[in-house]
Amino acid sequence: MKLLTISRVMSVLLSLVALVACDATVSPPRSTVAGQFLPAFSILDHDNHSQVFTPPKTGVLVLNLWAIWCPPCREEMPGLQRLADSHDAADLQVIGLAIEEDAYLLDEYLRKYQISFSVKRMGREQAESILGLREYPLTLLLRPDGRILARLVGAFDWDDPAIRSLLQQLGQRQDVDSEAIDEVFRNNQKAQAAARRQM
After folding, report:
1. Which of 16-20, 112-116, 141-145, 179-183 is least confident?
2. Torsion-angle region of 39 (φ positive above 0: left; ψ -120 to 50: alpha; else: beta)
3. I want to staple 117 with a disulfide (CB 3.0 to 4.6 A). Which of 58, 84, 128, 177 is the partner?
4. What positions belong to coiled-coil segments (predicted)?
């Protein structure tokens, strides 16, 4: 009888844990949705020492969380590089947050694929708990004051004229609401999906 009761209690507890875990993956932390300020977090230097991440105070920031092992992340890297190359830092900056333990492996990858925009390293646990990383890649668009303009999940074609035009507007401090931003990026993903189906 006692065995049966313990078994039932364990079953209920496991169900609750599973439910909490599922809920945790559905919605990002409140602190990383549009309209909120970017929460404080740490990045890793080359010797794995933590230091506080300080976002730039000028221009729109494209903050891209990615990993070397993630194919869509790797596919969008050249587009992010072209985006960084085509804008003055006063208007727009691209920073990558690589979820990678091995600093030397990351250096080798960046050198091999000629990625020269700023890439920092971040621990996975922090990326998940503070920035709400659930799927790779994740991009946060930020104002110079650190307020989040958009939270974008998935890879994008950063050469898309609609995205370039939107980012130019944001770089010129024009007001664009978060729904309009989301729509531009959703359309970009739909276009990419349609192009893949035709291949």
Report:
1. 16-20
2. beta
3. 84
4. none
